[in-house]
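Quick review question:
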């Protein structure tokens, strides 16, 4: 006589067990995400370092051709009436951008120049000028704030003016930055806006002064040449890489690394020191790398400098010939 096999019972997950599984998955994801984000930032920072290294090669190539001169900006003194582009634009042939370079005439303001197609040269995005760590959405917001229909080709790398004084925008004032003026080289009242190389503490300027490598007497390995910046946090740098008034040769080590000036709104009456239009704090070095920013030194080395660096030491690294050849610990 055949007997039917008893039915096997199938028990599903209870609510408690399901919640435990979900909690474990959430915990694993929570542990994994920071590691993924860290790996991504490490890769981005490596890309930024490589871009700065290529700029170092470009500076060396330029100097070899120009009898030891460093690329200067294009403001012609004494009347400031002429703009002839940035020093960064003069490095294009050494970063494989000869076609863009050949389209530029440095005998007039290149910000008004176009390609044969009619497209403005300033719109050109140069891949080696951009750090992937920066927030490109912030750039879009900044362009919208300015009402620009045509975007600028931007850069995250600016030539250092060292511990040089900057001005103040009376409609977007930040007088608290005045406390840093005592660190300037040379300090007030010695500084004036005129065509004298000896009054330029850093290796670069936005004027038509080609400072010589031999004047970097503190040592190339101990003098900052370029550093990172965020164009969405500076009314000068949002102008891009091409023009003379874009922060190139104007960015100063007087401002602490990663000083927050990223308020690009048009609202008045708020703390000017947080806004991108103050003409002093905005002209500083900053990045989205946690805790610091990357810098190119005159010998071609690239280092991440912590935002907690001793401020006086930062000025020693910014000046080219103050006789205080400070080194990083």
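Suggested answer, residue by residue:
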């Amino acid at each position: 006589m055949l007997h039917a096999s008893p039915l096997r019972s199938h028990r599903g997950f209870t609510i408690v067990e399901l919640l435990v599984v979900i909690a474990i998955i959430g915990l694993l994801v929570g542990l994994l995400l920071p590691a993924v984000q860290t790996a991504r930032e490490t890769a981005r920072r490596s890309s930024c370092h490589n871009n700065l290294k290529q700029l170092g090669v470009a500076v060396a190539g330029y100097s070899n051709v120009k009898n030891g001169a460093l690329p200067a900006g294009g403001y012609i003194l004494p009347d400031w009436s002429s703009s002839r582009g940035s020093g960064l634009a003069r490095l294009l042939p050494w970063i494989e951008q000869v076609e863009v370079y050949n389209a530029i005439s440095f005998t007039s303001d290149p910000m008004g120049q176009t390609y044969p197609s009619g497209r403005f040269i300033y719109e050109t995005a140069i891949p080696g000028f951009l750090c992937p760590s920066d927030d490109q959405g912030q750039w879009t917001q900044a362009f919208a704030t300015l009402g620009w229909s045509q975007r600028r080709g931007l850069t995250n790398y600016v030539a250092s003016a060292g511990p040089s004084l900057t001005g103040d925008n009376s409609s977007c004032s930040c007088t608290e930055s005045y406390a840093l003026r005592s660190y300037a080289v040379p300090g007030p009242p010695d500084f004036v806006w005129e065509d004298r190389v000896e009054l330029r503490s850093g290796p670069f300027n936005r004027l038509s002064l080609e400072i010589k490598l031999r004047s970097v007497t503190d040592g190339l390995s101990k003098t900052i040449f370029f550093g990172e910046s965020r164009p969405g946090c500076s009314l000068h740098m949002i102008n891009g890489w091409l023009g003379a008034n874009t922060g190139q040769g104007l960015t100063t080590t007087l401002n602490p690394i990663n000083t927050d000036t990223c308020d690009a709104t048009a609202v008045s009456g708020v703390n000017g020191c947080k806004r991108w239009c103050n003409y002093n704090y905005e002209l500083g070095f900053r990045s989205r790398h946690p805790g610091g920013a990357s810098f190119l030194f005159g010998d071609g080395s690239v280092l991440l400098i912590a935002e907690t660096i001793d401020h006086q030491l930062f000025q020693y690294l910014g000046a080219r010939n103050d006789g205080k050849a400070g080194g990083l610990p």
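Why it works: The longest strand covers residues 292-297. The helical segments are 15-65, 98-103, 136-146, 311-318.
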